[in-house]
């Protein structure tokens, strides 16, 4: 039995492990991640067949707006896991939504380096504890409280036992939100079912509040342009283009990022507007985790049509061609790209801090859906992990 299991190896889950280790805790930690590697929405897509390919397919960078900054930021920079973002950001048709405040950062060599750096900090802080265990390609489907409130059993596909742990942390909202039923056909919301079985009033309130936090989806077009097409794109005077609300309504795009590759190619990520993602909510990329691990059945015809619609919008916005014999296009859908405050429709709140840890049930929560500075962003994921570590440490 592990001392602490963390579901999700995105920024928040990895930051929690790093912060606990840096505070001297040596208990066993297991992270269970559905993707092929750490990072979550701040991951980098790579290919075994194409070693030069690296696409930041969720967040191209992150910003820190609050003061003081998260405590983990400095050691990440000192370890050269992250670096300041120096590319130009341009806004189309006025103020776009996104990276227009605070200090800008990116992973050094890919956004996944942010989470990999956090795991490295964890292992370096307490070498006597051994490496933090990371299990990728692992889908948690059911949460079972152990008798007497002594911990948790985590079950995967076909209800197979994945892990027993004394303490559990959910670093995302998939297991807590009703969208898991609507999108994947699950019979229940795992956290809600577990909370009802335990009868812990605090956990029931936390589960209800998490379930009420809505989120916007994003259908992301991932393009890999050959060198002959890439040259014109890389000559553009920006690396990130943000679209205003009016521009999003016109073209169906929210943000475009250009990512030069080492061999002269260019990766382009075109993030859809929330309205476009809603209109295409049942269209999943055939190479996505939703299709490969969560059972969402891709429709090749709809997938092709969605890719073509995004390509057309991108060409209209930028004024350059993105199609060619060697251009590669794929679709990545984020079902919960940006959390919204419950009941308000604006990103100003989330799960209250007093519900972030439920000691009687030995479960905690971190991630960008926690209320506070940075809500809905990488900053919020970092800060929520640091706050949860402070609450957990005396109880572990």
Count of runs of 4 or more consecutive helical residues: 12
Q: Give the total of beta strands.
A: 19
The radius of gyration is 20 Å
Largest sheet: 8 strands, mixed
Helix-strand makeup class:
alpha/beta
Fold and architecture overview:
This protein has 396 residues and is an alpha/beta fold. It folds into 2 domains: 246 residues, FAD/NAD(P)-binding domain (3-Layer(bba) Sandwich); 123 residues, Polyamine Oxidase, Chain A, domain 2, CATH 3.90.660. The protein is built from 12 helices and 19 strands. Strands 1, 2, 9, 10, 11, 12, 18 and 19 form an 8-stranded mixed sheet that branches. The protein has a 6-stranded mixed sheet with strand order 7-14-15-16-13-17. Helix 1 links the parallel strand 1 and strand 2. It is globular and about 65 Å long.
Question: Which structural traits does this protein have?
Answer:
alpha/beta; 396 residues; 8-stranded mixed sheet
Summarize the structure.
It is built from twelve helices and 19 strands.
How would you summarize the topology of this molecule?
Layout: E1 2-7, H1 11-22, E2 29-32, E3 45-46, E4 54-55, E5 62-64, H2 73-78, E6 82-84, E7 89-92, E8 103-107, H3 112-125, E9 133-135, E10 142-145, E11 152-155, E12 161-170, H4 179-184, H5 190-198, H6 201-212, E13 215-225, H7 227-234, E14 240-243, H8 245-251, E15 253-260, E16 266-272, H9 274-279, H10 289-292, H11 300-318, E17 328-339, E18 357-358, E19 363-365, H12 378-392
Parallel strand pairs: 1-2, 1-12, 2-9, 7-14, 12-19
Antiparallel strand pairs: 3-4, 5-8, 6-8, 10-11, 11-12, 13-16, 13-17, 14-15, 15-16, 18-19
Helix pairs in contact: 1-3, 1-12, 5-6
